[in-house]
Amino acid sequence: MIDVEANRLVMCVSAHLHTGMSMGVIRTDRLTRRFGDLVAVDDLSVEVPRGGVTGLVGPNGSGKSTLIRMLLGLIRPSSGTADVLGHPISRPEVYASQVGALVEAPAFVPGLSARANLRSLARLRGLPDVRVEDVLMTVGLMGREQEPVKRFSLGMKQRLGIAAAMLPDPQVLVLDEPTNGLDPAGIVEIRGLLQRLGESGRSVIVSSHLLAEIQSVCDHLLVLRFGVLMYAGPMADLLQRAESHIDVQPEFDSDLERLHQVLVDAGWTVTTDSSGQLRVLAPLAAAAQVNRDAGSGGVTLRAIHARQDDLERIFLEMTGTNDDELAASRAAALRPPHDPGATSNEADR
Amino acid sequence: MSGRHAVADRMGNHRPGLLNVVSSELLRLRRRGIALGWLGLTTAMAVLINVVMFQIVKNGSPPPLNGPGINFPTATTLLSDKGIVAGLPAASSMFGVVALSFWALATSTDYSTGLVRVLVSAQPRRWRLVMGKWMALALATALTTVVALVVSLMVAPIAARAAGFTPTAWGTNLGPDLASATVNLFCALLVWGTIGLALATLTRSSGIAIGVGIGYVLLLETVIKAAVSSAGRWLPGTTIAALANGGTPDLTYGRALALGLVYVVVALGAALVVFTRRDVTD
C-alpha cells in the first residue's frame, strides 16, 4: 500500500503544475462535507482542468456523488469552498445555465414520453423546444421519443439522462456512470460522444466504476477514497507509475526452484504468486534478457509473458484490493481526532 | 410555449424565471395518471353528491350529522336559487381530499423518481421551484373546480327530476350563484392543496402526506372539536368548510377567507423553508 499522505501531497502539486491554477473549470479548496460522524468529502483541494474529459473514480462511498452534489448546489459543504466556472458553489444559479449533469440514475416522469420529459426540462431552463430535438438526435433516441419513459430499457433511460444533461449545451458536463446499462455498441457510441465533447473545448467530468472505460476516454483523473484525494492529474502520468513484470514458466515443473535460483543469481527480483508461477519484477524490455539468463542457467522456458499494470491495478493499489483493506481504511478515517492512534492525515488537519 | 420567458444575461446565459417553472410543471402535470385521476375523481364526486343529496331529501330522512366531510343541504336549500350548485359546498371536503392527494402526489413524485435532483440543478433558485409548482397546481385546481361546476350543472337537474322535485327558483340568480360557488370551492381547494404540498415536501412521501392530511381533517379535527368546542372556529377543516359554504354561523366568510389565507401562507412558508434549506439527497 502506498503512503497515502505523501502521495496525496505530491499528486496535488503535480496536478497544479500540469493544469495551471488559473485554467481550472472547477476548483475546490479544503472542501469538506460531513454526514454526522461520516466524513464523505474530506478537506479536498483539487482543480479540474478546462476542456477534455476528466474521470472521477473511487470505491463505493468514496465521496464522488457527494462532491458532484456539492458542485451542483444540491447539498452544501460543511466547510471549505469551491468554484465552478469561477463562481462560488454558494451561488449555483449563476453557473447553472452552463452546467449539465446526470447525477446517479437518470430521473424522469415515467408516464410521460421522452420528448415531453425533455421539453419540461427545456422549459424549466428557458430553452427552445428545438434543443430537445437536437439532443434526442445526438443520443440516438429519435424514433423512440414518443414512447413513455416507463417502457424504456435501462440503456435507453441512460441515453435520455445524457440528453437531459446536454440540453443547455453546457460548458461543463457532469455524468455519473454514463454507460451504465448500455450495450457494447452504445458504450462505444457514448465514449465517442464524450471524447468529441471534450475535444470541442467543453469540460466533461465522468464518474464511473468501469476503470477500463475511464482509461479509454479520460485525459485527466481524480481518484478519491473515503473522501480523500488520492490522485489528481493527467491519466498518462498515472499510467507511467504502472509497474511491469514478467511471468515465466519453465518447460518442466520440476525446474521451478532451479529457475527461481538462476534468476535471483542473475540479479532479478523474483516473487512467486499463489499458483506457484514465478514473477520477475522488471521492465517490459527486460523480457529477452530474462529469457537469456534462464537459458544460461540451463532452464528452458515454456512461457514468458511481459505485463504492465493497467488503471485497475493502480487503482486497487491506491484504494485497497479487498473489503478488509477498505474497511480498515474506513475505520482509520472515522477515528476521532483526539485518538492517540490518529493518522497523519488527521494530524495534518 | 418555449423559452420566451427566459432572460439572457450579457454573456448569453439563460436565466429562466418563475413562468418557466410554471410552464415546465404544467407539462409534467399532463401525465395520464394525474390528469385523468384528478378529473375523473372530481367528476365522480360531483355526480355522487348530486344524486345522493336529492335522494336523501326525497326519502324524507334527516341529513346525516357529522358525516365524513359532507354537509348535506336541507330541502329548503336545494329548492332555493343556490340549489343547482349546492353539491359543491356540500362535498367540498371530498373534493378537498382529492385535491390534497393530487397536490401531494405531484410533489412527492419529484422525490420518488429522483427528479428533484434534476430540477434543483437546472433551477437552483429553489423558491422558484416551490412557487412555480404551487402556481401550476393552482391552475390545475381551477380547472378541476370548473369541471366540478359543469358536472354539477349537468347532473343536478336530472337528479332533481329523478327525485321528483321541480325547483322553480333555480336560475333566478344564476350568474352570481355560479360565480360564488366556484370561487368559494376554488379557495377551499387551494387551502387543501397547499396543505398537501407542504406535507409532501416535509415528508417526501405521498402516502404519509395524504394519510396525515386526511386523517387530521376528517378524524383528528372532529375529535378536537368535540373536546374543545371553542377551537372549532379556527381549525383548518372548519375554516375550509366555511370557506366553501361562503361562511357559516360560527365563522363569517370574511374571517374564513382571512384564516384560509393564513393557513396557505403558513403551509407554503413551511414548504419553502424546508425545500430551500434541505439537502437534496434523494
List segments of chain B where confidence is low: pLDDT < 50 over at least 5 consecutive residues: none
Q: How many distinct domains of chain A?
A: 2
- On the 0-100 scale, what is the average pLDDT of chain B? 88
Write down the Rg of chain B: 20 Å
Shape of chain A: elongated
Largest inter-chain contact set: A-B, 36 and 39 residues
**Major sheet description of chain B:** 2 strands, antiparallel
Count of alpha and pi helical runs of chain A: 14
Poorly predicted spans of chain A: 1-22, 336-349
Note the run of SSEs of chain B as H and E.
EEHHHHHHHHHHH
Tell me, briefly, the overall form of chain B.
Answer: globular
> Which H/E pattern describes the elements of chain A?
HEEEHEEHEHHHEHEHEEHEHEEHEHHH
When the domains of chain B are counted, the total is 1
Q: Which class of secondary structure composition applies to the elements of chain A?
A: alpha/beta
The end-to-end span of chain B amounts to 30 Å
3D structure, described in words:
The complex is a heterodimer of chains A (349) and B (282). With 349 residues, chain A is of the alpha/beta class. Chain A contains 14 helices and 14 strands. Chain A has helices at residues 4-19, 64-72, 92-95, 114-125, 130-138, 154-166, 184-199, 211-217, 235-240, 256-265, 287-296, 311-319, 323-334, 344-348; strands at residues 24-35, 38-49, 52-57, 79-84, 87-88, 99-102, 172-176, 203-207, 220-225, 228-234, 244-250, 270-272, 278-280, 301-308. Chain A has a six-stranded mixed sheet, with helices on both faces. In chain A, α4 (114-125) crosses α5 (130-138) and α5 crosses α6 (154-166). The radius of gyration of chain A is 24 Å and the shape is elongated. With 282 residues, chain B is mainly α. Chain B is built from eleven helices and two strands; from the N terminus they run ββααααααααααα. Chain B has helices spanning 18-29, 32-59, 75-79, 87-90, 92-112, 115-122, 126-162, 174-203, 206-227, 236-244, 253-277, and strands spanning 7-8, 14-15. Chain B has a two-stranded antiparallel ribbon. In chain B, a hairpin with a 5-residue loop joins β1 (7-8) and β2 (14-15). In chain B, α2 (32-59) packs antiparallel against α5, α7 (126-162) crosses α8 and α10 (236-244) crosses α11 (253-277). Chains A and B meet through α4 of A and β2, α1 and α6 of B.
